[in-house]
Design goal:
Chain lengths: 338, 338, 338, 338, 338
């Protein structure tokens, strides 16, 4: 997530310069050809009104794409908001539910009880970090045409697992990470752990089921993330939007020289060049903005800041456990919060 | 679901070539007639401004259709996401709930208990595969005008039932598949199986009802799929969109020759031909994109990848049961994941 | 619900012919007047650019209306989808919950228990059929301007009650149908029947409340249908849309003769007539499509197919009861499924 | 709520005549000035293309406002639909839950039990009528610029309280109506009444909490109504829409005389006057339609028909109690149902 | 929240005057240059049709931004509506659930019980006030380009804590306010307090879990507020909208002088100046309206009126406790309610 209110001119240029040079070159070429060919009886002008109609139709089509891309981002963000809420609820439930109350004959010591709480809360932290790592892994589908910002270093630790292993015993971590869907298996382990607590008399049926309800919610949240990750915005919608914009951009200078030539005095035709570059840039930018926001879990500038959210949950939950050696919050790096 | 980020030019051409030839022929014909008739005093030009107004109105109308088609696809995908979540929840609940705890006098052996778990989890897998097969069956309504990609082979097994029968005893499978709605009857059987477990003392009332809650969810998810399958996008909206676009495309060359003739020097009128083909193709494509995305369960390129989702659930659930002879994940075939 | 993918030309003409004749007459009149008056110094042309602006603004306004009409239809369809889901859930719950388990001292015979199940499930079928009949009854508000397709016969039986009476004892049916809101009173009776089963020991508190939850859902679904039925799309939005389109259509020929006259050679002015008819028809059709889809419960072509849905539920539920003398599914009549 | 399908011309004129006179006067003035000044070398024409651009941008902006106003109305209507559903559910729950079953030692007589039911159901009726009266009270914010239809008499009784007092003992009614939020205090009293029934053994814990769930829903529904009432559509969006439309209307005649003057023969310039009035009226009407639908609880033509809904609920609930002296349904007055 | 129906001209001018002067200066400059340069053979006119196309595309893009900004505001308002509802529900639950019923052997006095109620209800009030203060604190992201209205005094008390401390014992308040997320810790304390009441026999399991359900809701509502606060509207969408509008405004006078020059008689070119200022102002205002509504928790004119809502909840809840020394409702200050 980009955190500055106004995007730095440098970043805009970094994305735009290649296009700007291309647009300039193309409109210079077209205007030049026009000026060269017209006296020789060849007219390459296009009427602008039909172009304007395409322009509006395409702008409308891109509006639809932008709107859906934003919805994908916002749904992803909402899902991670739900992960925050459920993690806090889980911690409050575990602290308030797992107790000696239903087991007065053989009560655990306060420290042993606290250990049970910590185990369940830490496994929740392991779950959300494992989910984050799974989502940030690049998919099998080809995505090389998205221009990643190369100098953004992911602060995920090198192979990734370390951050999950903080919250799990070593052998459990190894077993879980080797399975098909580590986060799903972690939630499954939570449900088995609850059953053991119930069998051990540390939980009654009411509270067992209320905790299971939270696990159900977590399955739903994980599923929502996986759905957005694994189902890209339908390509037939997305790709044609790109094609249409480029067709419009290619035709634009032909139409603009026509319009300028209508104004009369000859020299102004070359004004078509900067004007064409500007209009092309606006359309190309509208298109790219939607394209870049489509996938919120790709290690990219516009990602949902999952690393920061995971850390915030860690701080809240460990504070609820009374721990004080808390890690610092994640800070934006190069104006980007991941 | 098409999985490449950029659609292969070949696939685009495969859909477009017929139209492109038609557009070229039509605009050649119109431009030729115009050039032939004008000197003879017959003017077939149309003013472009009214055409532009229709173009924008129609683009707007198609925008509405595209938006609703996408919503249908996305709701279908969300529903299958919900099936993933509920299946995982079901497996965790069954493993954690069905136990000897409430039946200490006559406990089952661990293996017998495991069998009970497997039966319930396998019937869930049977349900979702039966639902997939029911949805992929072509409906009674005529749909021949959608151009299916013929060489895409469905990997569903030949008559379909085998994959359901993997998860059910033979006679149950036969009985269920002969009824009106096999998936609904499978869920009904789940609820009867729960009642028997409750009567046998392997489940208490709390857990019985929590499992019933998951079955209720499954009924809702199945109903959502059937609703999308059985209620096509209202034909009055969809069909007129197609008609309007074709009217616009038919009128377009008449308007373009008018605009080109305004620019002056005569030869450029024939530029109307490629320009007309391009604009026609853009409008026809916007229309077709919506049309092809309307129905997400039709064995088609843009389907929800139900086969892959079913397989992923199978892997997750059987891993939760501790099984290791897992089938491989479904891979895209010709860039298409079904 | 219209079930053919392409609407038959006959049906389109049936709706359109009156308008088409009117549009032709009007544009002939305007063009004729123009040709007659212009040489006499009276110019009735209108500039087209302002007309185009109205056209786009009106298209935009109709887009809003179409979108809301579709939402009304789709919400109605979703509600009936919910009725399917809740009816299936109700049948599974009743079969799995109402039992001798909580009443071991004086158990019912299997047949008597089955009767209890059937009574509750049949009353659910009575509820949904009563709801359908209530919704299909024409409202008190004047709706004569919607062109009903007169030869579509409702297959509801003549006075309607028979289909409800199939599922209820005679005297209960009579009492219920005489009250203000029969479906609401049927749900109320379900809740009283549950209380009696609870008092008789055939149901425990857990299951009693879970069934009440399903009744609560049914109240919600009934309320949603009644809301859509009783609250038409706000007239200030809907009616002005119609007025605006007709103003646009009336002005259109004045503008078109102006545009054609600009093109130059005189004879082509009469091309304004077919062009005007075409544009008028497109705008009128966009308007009518929204207008006709606004109310999904009016015995109309675009209705939610409630009769077919009710029958499908009947088949599913009676199959769950093990019955075999099932009625056939409803087939479309004249391409229309009601 | 206006109930006629086609709005009476009289009502439209009643809203429009002031504007129509104003528009006519203004466009006459501008056209007159133009004709007078042009020969004197002063040209007050505006080019129409930029005006058209503003027109489309403003139409688009109004579309957003209209859409949100409709959403506000529809959410309000949905909320009152929810009040219908919850009231029916409440009546069924109360009748089925409050019983002697849990209190076999000291059972109430059937009549005393019925009294308990009636008290709870009548207080629900008091709640919804109190909510209606609170919502219909004009807010502190200035709203004098909305043109209320003066001759619509509210059938609420003069000071309003009587209708609430029908359902409550006198002293309870007095106490409640003197507090900050009478409806909230009525729901609070329902929850205290439930506690007393529980203490008296007429309700068990299961049913107590299920009824509390319905009260929670009622709090949510009341809160939704208060939110819409107290948070007008943000003024920055709404007010600028009005300003933009009026700017467009003021500039319109300057642009139209320009367009007409382009058509050539001089006399037709005065056609700009009726054309201008028509376009102005369309834009002003689109604007006003949104403005008038924004607030659904203001004693206004476009209100949610709360009085009628309250009466319908009263009839249903009292029929469930077996009462027969039921009041008649509310009828529309001057085509308006309140 | 601005409460007047029509925004005061003064406030509009306060926001607009800088821009208006700038627009006037710029269009004077452009028109002047044009008049000076044209006779010298340099033509700086731009054709208007391409500009119109950009104008419409940009208006469309801004429409998307405005719509999303409004959705952010309305979601924030809904969330605070949910806080109202949950707070009232909490108070009714606490009053009705925490009792001597489950603890007949060692009952508390009525006063001691009332104290328990008050403690739980006051901590809820502390929670919502702490949440309000956390949301109103300015974020770390740079926001200096939003023009805060400087003379609006926040009525929050100076350092903020006092209002929270009203509802908490001193030491609890100190502890809580020093932690990472005070509101989350307050909810956690509520859940621990419930556990103690349960251990002390003042609450049974049913009611304990129902209260926990309300705490879960509060976690969700807090999370929704934090999500909106911490995730600004994606900058790539918001910032480019601003850039595009300014590009359009810069180019506008070049296009307008072109259009005016087409009309013919020379003097009217200077009419381009006021016309340009007006169009520029409309586009700039549409842009700014969205920009200013984007963030609903920033101590700003368009904030959700959290202070007023908190006070209203305080009045309702303390009235439910039977208290009478209630604070007055918050009144708008300078037409602004915070």
């Amino acid at each position: 997530m980009y955190v500055r209110r106004n995007i730095r001119a440098g970043l805009i240029l970094q994305f735009a310069w290649r296009n700007l040079i291309g647009f300039t070159f193309w409109s210079l070429l077209v205007t030049g050809c026009y000026c060269y060919l017209l006296p020789r009886g060849i007219d390459i002008r296009l009427p602008f009104l039909p172009l304007s109609t395409i322009g509006i139709a395409v702008a409308f089509y891109m509006g639809f794409k932008n709107s859906q891309s934003y919805d994908r981002f916002w749904e992803a963000r909402k899902t991670w908001g739900g992960i925050v809420n459920n993690s806090r609820t889980w911690a409050s439930q575990v602290s308030g539910y797992v107790s000696n109350h239903f087991n007065p004959s053989a009560p655990l010591t306060a420290a042993a009880l606290k250990d049970k709480h910590r185990e369940l809360i830490y496994r929740q932290l392991a779950w959300l970090n494992a989910l984050r790592l799974q989502l940030r892994r690049t998919t099998i589908h080809d995505r090389h045409n998205i221009s990643y910002v190369p100098h953004v270093q992911l602060s995920d630790g090198k192979p990734g697992e370390p951050l999950v292993s903080t919250f799990l015993p070593d052998n459990e971590c190894r077993q879980v990470m080797s399975q098909g869907s580590p986060p799903a298996q972690l939630l499954h382990r939570q449900s088995l752990a609850l059953q053991q607590l119930f069998d051990a008399g540390l939980l009654d049926s009411f509270r067992h089921l209320d905790l299971m309800q939270t696990i159900r919610e977590c399955y739903n949240l994980q599923g929502a993330c996986e759905r957005i990750k694994n189902t890209p915005f339908p390509r037939q919608y997305a790709y044609f939007s790109t094609i249409f914009v480029w067709i419009f951009i290619l035709l634009l200078p032909f139409g603009l020289v026509g319009e300028f030539s209508k104004l009369g005095t000859g020299g102004s035709t070359w004004l078509a060049v900067p004007f064409s570059v500007l209009i092309s840039w606006i359309f190309a930018t509208i298109e790219v903005v939607g394209d870049n926001s489509e996938d919120p879990f790709e290690n990219y500038v516009n990602d949902v800041p999952m690393t920061a959210i995971c850390r915030n949950i860690e701080i809240d939950l460990r504070e609820m456990l009374g721990e004080t050696d808390l890690p610092p919050r994640i800070q934006p790096f190069n104006d980007i919060l991941l």
